[in-house]
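Q: Could you write out the predicted structure for this multi-component system? I'm mainly interested in how the pieces pack against one another.
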Amino acid sequence: MKHTRYHAATALLALCAAPLPAQQLLAVRGATVHTATGAPISDATILVRDGRIAAVGRNVSVPAGALVIDATGKVIVPGFIDEHSHIGARPTDLNDRPMIIGPQHRIRDALDLEDPDWKDAVKGGVTSLTTGPGSGENVSGMAIVLKTFGSDLSKRILLEKGGMKFAMGPKRSDAYPATAMGVAANLRQYLIKTQEYVAAQKRWEDGGRQGAPPARDLGYDAMAEVLARKVRVRAHVHSATDVMTILRLKDEFGFDLTLHHSTEAYKVATEVAKRGVSAVVLPLGSRIGVTDDAMKGPFELWKAGVKIAMHTDHPVINQKWLRLSAGLAMRYGLPEDEALKAITINVAEIQGVADRVGSIAVGKDADFVVMNGPWYEPRTRVDLVVGDGAVIYDRSTEGK
Amino acid sequence: MRETSRFLATTVVTAVAIAFVASPLAAQERAIAIRGGTVVPMDGPAITNATVVMRGGKITAVGANVTIPAGATVVDARGKYVLPGLIDAMTSLGIGSGDLNEPADPVSPQLRVFEAFNPFGDFGSGTSGPLRLHELLGGGVTTMYIAPADAALIGGQGAVVKTAGDNLAAMSLRDPAAIDISLGEPPRKAASAKQRDPATRMAEVAMIRQALVRAQEYQRNKAQNPSLPRDLGQEALGKLLRREIPARIQANAPVDIRNALQLAAEFGFDLVIDGAANAKSQLAQLAARKVPVILGQVSHPYVSNEEIPDKSDYPAVDETLPATLTNAGVTTAIATFSRAFGSLAPSGSSKWLLLDAGIAAGYGMTEQQVLQAVTIIPARILGVQDRVGSLTVGKDADVIVLDGPPLSMKSWVERVYVGGELVHEKR
């Protein structure tokens, strides 16, 4: 990576945790830019002002005083986004298993910002993601959507209530309920109790707040937001029958839903599509031995009209290899631009933060990745990562 | 892919013969020539517009100026890449989940993994087929090492097998091929959960040392007094002590790698380090003592079969490790440490071996080095280099044809030959 003002770039790196000074301008010039929402633009310039994209295109004039990075011959893509990760949580903090339904749990309360995995995520071009609790319980709690860089959590958060994790299907036999039937009944019962809880609250409100208010329960409070469609459900599903179960629950209770893992969702793709439900899909990179049929799942879902996103399930797959999950989907039929969307704009839309991230577009956060080859090839390297307009990773200064 | 024949009459006769006999042997009697591709033989540089000829299950010619025998089946490989079948130097594929770890005794050298090897089924998912590991074949893997999993200290005897064959005996390439040993967290944790030894690394090393001392005594006593009762475990360890087979020791933490080197020095056995996540800590030793290393997936080096990796055995992920070791002169193979297909969290899946090789190529390995690390190098480490690992005249006709550059995400293995028999075609 050639820096026209190399010393300035180095200085930027030292300051990488801090935002750029006001009116700081950065121009990255000469690369082929994949914006994730349109055709690739060759020999393009991206102009960044105050941490946001100010211009992108072939005929962008670079104002005097801008830091110019020459990226001729490189490929630029939006910062990658993972909708299903467990990064930043210690393994022992993922599942509060004795409490089989715990909507009041928040991954935010377990987040470890010192986890070295965050830095590795940035090296892989992943600039934002949803991290959440595990799948050991029927409901394990609230995920969070945030950036992968920066020391100030409040500035990193894109969406505090990033989705309520449900986990469908049979569990280990030492946890109860152990069967798919048991899980479905347990969830349905809890959702009904939440309806009753909400109704009791409403009766008290409507009755002029007479007497003591109904006792609050943080679990029902949290699930009430799911029923009010203020928080979406992220449902861990593998088998097609579990997909149908969560779709039935959605039909009954009307919550917003995204399928997660979705291993066999392709077998019921039309059922998923007709409800407008999105799917976070396999492949889980190179670590899970799924069959060729299942590897075609993302392609089949996309063909059926389902909005799809790839995921790593970090630490199941290392966070930095999110792009290869999309590459594998491409290998199994998904067009290249759709595969890129599945780790950028689609994910931002599913998360509900597409006004901030997910594509290289004027007004959005300047989160993008400079690579030395096609983004989906295993041997391609990430050369530079820009996050909130600052250089947050520069391979030329890393020594490997 | 287009097939032509030089002599129509021969084609008809042979086709009739195949139709009626349907014997793989019949197919092998006839030469097959894969013509016009970029041949990457591994025992030398890549050759463009070259031909590979196989007959009778063996490779009979490789090169740019090869005369195609009369009557040969000709496969047009123009624009394609022809490689030897890949070798995954560490897997437990074909072993049922209940057969991965024998819990009876953490020191069980008498166990033979080949007796749990079941290539008849589909391992829970995928296309089933008799004696064909289709998902593996689709990734181009034609030879693999199979081992017990890593919960026991001395897990048993591993084997080298082909991924296709007419019968189990035909699939076996070397059995036993090594004694499988684990150090570090997996055996310690498995034993601790059962309230028994080894609960610590101290006990791990002491128990292995005790087993090897007993084995030395057994060999000596048996030589002096052949009428002594036989002990199958001691016989297996005897092969190790006589250097007929090496020890494969899984060791990831620096202390475990050091302990493996120490045990090998004490007892004089040949050593191969598996996993080796912290191999940089012993780089000079490994190179000086010519101890080969079999690394886990570059993208995910955690070789133990856990969904959430135990970071106490592993440092931060270092994708430069294959290049660092190779360039320091350490014989280094890349393997997947795969468990069964369809299971929740195997360490890897052999069908993605080239994908991880591709990552290594982004981190300092040349393309030639990377491809050798999944072919000829594992063949040498496994002691089967006279049979497989390169497109060399006289070796087994284990050949794969890819439709594009081997390290590209877009490339597919189109054809797989094992022993000259076409055992897989891309659907």
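A: Regarding packing and overall arrangement: The interface with chain A takes residues 123, 125-127, 135, 138, 297, 299-300, 307-309, 316-317, 320, 336, 338-349, 351-352, 355-359, 361-364, 407-410, 412, 427 of chain B (CB under 8 Å).
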